[in-house]
Amino acid sequence: AQSVTQLDSQVPVFEEAPVELRCNYSSSVSVYLFWYVQYPNQGLQLLLKYLSGSTLVKGINGFEAEFNKSQTSFHLRKPSVHISDTAEYFCAVIAMDSNYQLIWGAGTKLIIKP
Amino acid sequence: ETGVTQSPTHLIKTRGQQVTLRCSSQSGHNTVSWYQQALGQGPQFIFQYYREEENGRGNFPPRFSGLQFPNYSSELNVNALELDDSALYLCASSLGDKTEAFFGQGTRLTVV
User: What residues of chain A lie within 8 A of the CB of B95, using their CB?
Assistant: First the structure.
């Protein structure tokens, strides 16, 4: 079985400052990793994904994430945030040997302070 | 290329009633998954359909059931609604490929 832990329920940060949203996972098999963003009253949009290859993955809206297998982490980063980044961010995994069931973290609310 | 659409967007039901939620998958996608997202939580997998057959189910009771149609659209049915069923229900479609799922806007169900 897999599980995902997002260590921070909320992250407040000033506009134009860098941010890191943390994600750790647990799995006995190899997984694919994802970050999704959910804007208020909307569905989920894929930010980026790690399938294989380079451990540094670049996504939309200037976000990137780094897969660290030894630490079972997949932290999301952005060098300079904007008010428009205010949203909830979800980390998710799919086991490579399973069907398509995404296992999700509880989410991290990114709060941008002007 | 149309995206994933869900209907209705909002719904209020009374405890004990039944509800049907609908999802039109993205053009060409043959796999549909349903998730329940309670307030302040991450989504929880309900079940998945691939080419009209259920091929995976999460930890939800049998009163949660579904269908997928030949055009790959899907329904989620919930019988005997309980207050705890109040949540955002999300539908996601993919092309038989676990590397990317596209989500609809969700249906906000409130049970009173």
Answer: none
